[in-house]
Amino acid sequence: MRLWIAIAATTLASWTMKAAGPALIGNRRLPRWADDSIALLAPALLAALLIVELGGAHWTALNGTQVVGVAATGIARGFKAPMLAAIASGVIVTALLRLATG
């Protein structure tokens, strides 16, 4: 349930920022560095949410197979794999590790 509350809060904050931008700036353009920083905000927040959910409270729920699976997905994306293929590689790696560790 906590995950969905965080997703809803992030969505609401994003919508609020997107609505406030045109109201405050009008037709002026932001500098290039500001556009680049804003574009990185959502992935950074999503990565933080993923890390918090993987680790659990006080890192007590940390599961090594899940961490390796997420790392495999990130590595596949780093090598420019399509999103679906990267996710599939993470799922396969996680499943094989769970099978091997029984």
Structural topology:
Elements: H1 2-25, H2 32-55, H3 64-78, H4 83-101
Describe, in short, the structure shown.
With 102 residues, the chain is mainly alpha-helical. It contains 4 helices and no strands.
Describe the structure.
The chain is mostly helical and 102 residues long. 5% of the residues are buried. The chain folds into two domains: 58 residues; 40 residues. 80% of the residues lie in helices and 0% in strands.
Give me the count of strands. Answer: 0
Strand content: under 5%
Largest sheet: none
- Ends apart, CA distance between termini: 29 Å
Low-confidence stretches: none
Assembly type of the chains comes to single chain
Query: What is the C-alpha radius of gyration, as a whole number of Å?
Result: 18 Å
Instruction: Please give the domain count.
Output: 2
Averaged pLDDT, please? Answer: 89
Shape: elongated
Helix content: over 70%
Question: What is the N-to-C succession of helices and strands?
Answer: HHHH
Which structural class fits the helix and strand makeup? Answer: mainly alpha
H/I helix tally: 4
Describe this protein with a few key phrases:
mainly alpha; 102 residues; elongated; 2 domains
